[in-house]
Amino acid sequence: MKRQQQSTGWASDELAAIEATDELEIAPRRRDGTLRRPVPIWVVRAGSELYVRAAYGPGTGWHRVARASRDGRIRAGGVEKDVTIEDVDDAVNDLVDAAYRTKYSRYAASIVDGITGAEARSTTLRLVPRAQTDDVPPTRENT
User: Fold this and answer.
1) Average pLDDT, integer, range 9-31
2) CATH number at residue 59
3) How does 107-117 read in b/e, with b if 16+ C-beta sit within 10 Å?
4) Does 56 fall in a domain?
5) Secondary structure of residue 97 in the 3-state scheme
6) Is residue 136 part of a domain?
7) Which of 23-27, 57-61, 74-78, 129-133 has the weakest average pLDDT?
8) Tens digit of each residue's pLDDT (9 = 90 or more) over 64-108
9) Is 59 exposed, middle or buried, given 0-12, 13-18 or 19+ CB atoms closer than 10 A?
10) What pLDDT does 8 receive?
11) Which structural domain range is residue 84 located in?
12) Is the dihedral of CA 28, 116, 124, 14 positive or negative?
């Protein structure tokens, strides 16, 4: 089956599978090249992009490592990918807020308000898939 690629590098079936899940597991890469233990976080799709936020603020362990390394691995909906982790322009936050409010509307308003509040907005990161290569950095699983 041929995948339709999006401009961001995500295949349309990957975007759909990840969008359909409640949580994504993210394992940011440490300075020594190993992956942190995966942690579950909420993920949203806005257009052909995927975004995550640190619900407990910028000091959260996974977020600090992700922002420092700009590199990690995600797993959700049967999709596992190495990703580049990018900061976003503040202008995208309204779209990301709307995506969070729509996707997670079944949760209490106080929970969704937390992930769309000013502190969480400041932690917004875009996940961009990296091209797969044979040169795989070491992880706990393959060392």
Assistant:
1) 96
2) 2.30.110.10
3) eeeeebebbbe
4) yes
5) helix
6) no
7) 129-133
8) 999 999 999 999 999 999 999 999 999 999 999 999 999 999 999
9) exposed
10) 59
11) 12-129
12) positive
> Which is nearest to 88 in space by CA: 26, 44, 131, 132?
44
Q: Which two tokens stand for residue 25?
A: 């597991």
The CA distance from 109 to 142, in Å, is 42
Residues near 66 by Cβ (< 8 Å), separated by ≥ 6?
26, 28, 72, 85, 125
In a domain, 143, yes or no: no
Average pLDDT, the chain: 89
pLDDT of residue 142: 46
Domain count, the chain: 1
Among 48, 47, 44, 43, smallest CA distance to 6 is for: 48
In degrees and rounded to multiples of 5, residue 41 shows phi and psi of -140, 160
- CB 15, CB 30: distance < 8 Å: no
- What are the two backbone dihedrals, phi and then psi, of residue 44, each rounded to the nearest 5 degrees? -130, 155
